[in-house]
Design brief:
By secondary structure, this protein is mostly helical. Helices cover about 80% and strands about 0% of the residues. The protein has five helices and no strands. It has helices at about 1-60, 80-100, 110-145, 150-155, 165-175. The longest helix is centred in the N-terminal third of the chain and has 61 residues, at about 1-60.
């Protein structure tokens, strides 16, 4: 009788330990994703500010009227991280297209400094997005694998989205295996 009670206690203790370990893995992934989201937000805001500064210089130098108008939209404040990243990526590419077409812009020292800051910020943003995506892969793997998928049910965890399609495709491949 005592052996059965001790066996039940050991079994319950093992289940509790597994539950706690996997719950902690979820919590660690969530903290990492929140940290990455905060960093991404900072880099996106910096990129927006730098693009607006570059826009002013280019409009002044080239006497353009409709360059990067999407940066001045009131709608920009309502965008989530994914949408803002896409908008800023398009604006960034548009800026460099104008720079390629007008080499005289590189004579502007202020624009050159802005471009250097933009490039540095872009490197940091890409690194933050990579960190976020890598953490999302781990989190999403926990959601679909046993026994962590049972813990997901208790806490209502849902799959997270990636910043680019490359990671989404990798995750789908991993999920199928």
């Amino acid at each position: 009788m005592i052996e059965v009670i001790l066996g039940c206690i050991v079994l319950v203790a093992l289940i509790a330990i597994v539950f706690i370990l996997y719950h902690n893995k979820f919590r660690i992934s969530i903290v990492k994703m929140e940290e990455a989201e905060n960093n991404i937000d900072l880099f996106l805001q910096r990129k927006l500010d730098l693009l607006k500064r570059a826009k002013q210089v280019i409009i002044k130098e080239l006497k353009l009227e409709d360059f990067l108008e999407q940066l001045d939209s009131d709608r920009i404040n309502d965008l989530n991280h994914f949408e803002l990243n896409d908008l800023l990526k398009k604006s960034y590419n548009e800026l460099f297209k104008i720079l390629d077409d007008n080499e005289k812009l590189f004579k502007s020292e202020s624009l050159t400094h802005i471009i250097e800051d933009l490039n540095t910020n872009e490197i940091d943003l890409v690194a933050a997005i990579k960190f976020y995506n890598d953490t999302v892969v781990t989190f999403n793997q926990l959601i679909v694998t046993f026994p962590s998928n049972i813990i997901r049910l208790f806490f209502g965890y849902r799959k997270k989205e990636f910043y680019n399609h490359e990671k989404r495709e990798i995750y789908e491949i991993l999920k199928d295996n």
